[in-house]
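WP5 quarterly update. Target: DNA-directed RNA polymerase. Source organism: Corchorus olitorius. Length: 264 aa.
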Amino acid sequence: MVAAGNSLALNQGIQEEQVVPARYRQEFLTIAWEQVHLRSIFPFQYFSIGASLIPFIEHNDANRALMSSNMQRQAVPLSRSEKCIVGTGLERQVALDSGVPAIADHEGKIISADTDKIKIIFSGNGDTLSIPLVMYQRSNKNTCMHQTPRVPRGKCIKKGQILADGAATVGGELALGKNVLVAYMPWEGYNFEDAVLISERLVYEDIYTSFHIRKYEIQTHVTSQGPERITNEIPHLEAHLLRNLDKNGIVMLGSWVETGDILV
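Structure tokens (predicted):
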């Protein structure tokens, strides 16, 4: 039995209320206060994480709130994330619970901080710890996972302090988008119904640019005509299509490839 957090009998420890509203197996009941096992601490417990991140959700249409909470799962980390100006206050807790940022387990002092690791010396026993950082790794959704250090060298840190931001976090808070100027107005019919008209500055200045990493695998088999082999000697192909391949027929590191280019 989960009782409401604003119940007078549960808050002040008095029995002025003989019965309290409670939740049991997704049903709302009214029970005696002696039967309560747990209580709601935070009002956001009634909603999911996506719904709890929608500002002023009580003023939204129910269908639009459902769409907003589901569409947050489609968000991708931006190359330059930004904190939201209008939020619900749950952004920091969501970022901490996700495990994406690097958090200090003990208090100490930063010895060094670079792109791949952070070294800390503990203030108690003087031991040192090297915390590796994630650098441009692929996630299960083909997005880019990267951690950026946020503490300078020589800074004293406390337990639980943010050491490095991860994908879609800034300052230890969830940052899924950008703070842009939005106008609710018609514009020569281009934003009819669900259409959205954006400025070309958002494209040229990489405001909403995101990085995606894909992994490609290839297998060679032994056929009746002999074993297959990987090579750059492919007949009937233009030299332009083979420009990025090395002598073994594998694309070289640092090559700029486009749609239709051969990788292996």
